[in-house]
Amino acid sequence: MRGRVLRMRVRLPRTRRERRRLLWAAVAGCVLGLMPVTWVYAAAETRMRTVADVPAAPVAMVFGAGLWDGKPSPYLAHRLDAAVELYRAGKVRVVLVTGDNSREEYDEPDAMRAYLTERGVPEDRIVSDFAGFDTWDSCTRAVRVFGVKKAVLITQGFHVRRALALCGAAGIDAYGVGVAAKHDVTWYAGGAREVFASGKAALDAAIRPGPRFLGPREPGVEQALSR
Questions:
Q1: Which Pfam families match (predicted)?
Q2: Which band of pLDDT confidence, cut at 50, 70 and 90, is reported for residue 180?
Q3: 215: left (phi > 0), else alpha (psi -120 to 50), else beta?
Q4: Strands 59-63 and 94-98, how do they pair?
C-alpha cells in the first residue's frame, strides 16, 4: 500500500474578531509564562547581598554545582570560596554543603567538604546533606532534617534568586550571596534554564511537596553550633 502524505493546513484568522482573540490569547500566554519569573524576582529582591555586606547568620548553605574528575567544578569552587571567606570573617559559624550523592561514584558533598577543609574550615564546622537533589529539596531538607532557621545562601547570581524564593517558602530566614562567574556558555545556559525552572519553583512553593528523600532528623547543624 502506498503511503499517503497528509497535508495539514493552518487556518489563519480571517476576521477582525478572530485576530483580536488570537492577540489576547498570545498576551495571556506571555503573562502567565512570566508570572513565575516575576514572583522569583520579587521574593528575592530585598534579600540580595554581597560577601562584604551580608548579615551574619548561623549557617551558610552552599548548593552543589557539579564535579570535574571528582573535584568541585569551577562554578562550585567559586561558591565554596565565598563560604570560606564568610567563615573566616566570622559571618557564619557552620557550612551546610548540599548536593547530589544519588550514586556511589558521584559524591558532591564529600568533594565540597574536602575543598573547604583544605582551605581552613574545620571539619566539625561542616555538615553534609547528601540528598540535595535540587534547590527545593535542599531548602526543605535544611529545615525539616537539619533544623536550619536562618542562613546565608551561596550560589551563582543567575540561581540565587530562585534559591532565596524557595528557601523562604520552606521557612528559612535567608539572605543570598550571588558569586561572580565568567559569562561563558555555562553561564548563559544557566540563565536561560532559570526562566523555565521558575515555573517549577512557583509550583513547589505553592504545594510544598516533600523532598525525594526525607529521612530522619539529623542533629549535625545543632551540634556544630553548640561547639
A1: DUF218
A2: confident
A3: left
A4: parallel
Chain centroid offset of residue 179 CA: 13
Range of lowest pLDDT (3-7, 85-89, 167-171): 3-7
The pLDDT score that the predictor gives to residue 31 is 40
User: What's the CA gap between 227 and 217, in Å, rounded?
Assistant: 19
- Which pTM does this prediction carry? 0.81
- DSSP secondary structure letter of residue 149: -
R_g of the chain, CA atoms, integer Å? 22
58's CB contacts (< 8 A; 6+ apart) are 92, 93, 94, 148, 150, 151, 221, 225
Q: What are phi and psi of 57, to 5 degrees?
A: -150, 155
- Backbone φ and ψ for 226, nearest 5 degrees, come out as -80, -10
Q: CA–CA separation, 201 vs 194, rounded Å?
A: 10
Q: Contact at 8 Å (CB) between 60 and 96? A: yes
